[in-house]
Amino acid sequence: MALIHFKNISKVYNAHSVALDNVSFEIEPKEFVSIVGKSGAGKSTLLKLLIAEESPTSGKVFFDNQDVHKLKSSDVPFLRRRIGVIFQDYKLLPQKTAHENVSYAMEVAGRTDTDIRRDVPQVLDLVGLGDRAGNFPHELSGGEKQRVAIARALVQRPDVLVADEPTGNLDPINTWEIIRLLMKINEFGTTVVLATHNKEIVDSLGKRVVILEGGKLIRDEEKGKYIMA
Amino acid sequence: MFTALSRILKSGFQTFSRNAWLSAATIGIMTMTLFMFSSLFLFSFLTKEITGIIQDKIDVSLYFDPSVDEAEILKVRDLLVQLPEVDRADYISREEALEKFRARHKDNPVIIQALEELGSNPLQPAIAVKAKESTQYASIISFIDQAPFKEKIAKINFAENQRVIERLNRIVSALTRAGIALSILLAGMAGLISFNTIRMAIYSFREEISIMKLVGSSNWFARGPFVVEGILVSIFASLATLIILWPTVAVLSPKIAAFVPGTNLYGFFLTNLPGILALQTGAGIFLGVASSIIAINKYLKV
Fold first, then answer.
1. By the CB < 8 Å criterion, does B7 face chain A?
2. ipTM metric
């Protein structure tokens, strides 16, 4: 049974701006899928539809057999706790330390203080930031910020980790560290959906590649490469 | 439930203290608003006091012919006291009137000398009538006009006072109406300024609110800390208002008392201190919480 199912998804902002045009594909549990395409191809829109940040013009998005856009707004937070998301601009809370940013994700989910005290240092160690727990985001480098964001996503023990251009603002060394971290997370059994326009990364991964262009799905291959049409 | 509440409280205190400058600026604006509220409250007390004092000074005197017996005058006084409109009716004998007259003009040697030369008491016995409301004098006078003891009265000074009384009545009612209108206007303006300040503060947190939502926070868990912050701002603003208001009232009160004897603004302030504090804190919290909730709703739709 597919974990994520995009079914005939279209998203039209206005007559001149069609973000997605009848896109359908499925993602199985434990898969590592790269969604690639140029800026404006519709990658981010697809991910926003998955976490119910936006609604499709037509079509349906299923997560674990649940139509995401039929959820009551009070149930949306529960969906988001099962889907960890990391962004190009990290989206860390600037007034909270690395430790607090990660523990916030557990607090919103109502996890106990005991769990928080146990899990947060563990997951910060996992991303290699055990010694930066007390630092605020403005005291961290880009790569470190993105690793805090990954730790925040992981600490929820999500079914899927969705990464929207996670390396867009990083130098090559940090880029590869983040990618290696995502692969490690996938090896531990978490589904990873990576949206990127970085050809080098996609070609070296040797995993499934879904290519979008102008809002249309033009290629979907196991062990694919980033091939421009 | 309790865990969530304590986490919201903690987060609220954190937002408040880690954004010290923003908090201080918001407290400043809120303090001005609450200062306005409390000043208007004291002002309305003061107008009531002053109009009361002025009305208290109005009376109507009935002067009797010196030949009329004291017993008869007292009978008239008893009649007047029974009228529902009459608050007080005091008999002033010729001797008392003379004493008062002397006391009033003791610094004027010409008048005193004139009095000495006259040799006898030129003043008439009188009844000073005080109505419960300053608007009731007309009906008291019409009662006296139709009463059988009318012919014993030499003079009523009402006609002279009438225009003053009427003008005073107009001033009093205009002052009360203007006070209410001004209070509503100023309070509304101050409230709007506070609301907009809080809206701007929340606007600066819009990114964070959307991040909270994306991480899986419920609406209340995202909103809560800002509501807590709004309450904290209000409490601090209320205390700051008190710190400014107290000495202001202490300094102004004797000056107002010198202008309108009989008022005691500072005394009123002190006896009603708990009430004023509760009122302004309550108004502040209502304003702070309502503004936060209204302002934040826009950013929760993520």
1. yes
2. 0.86
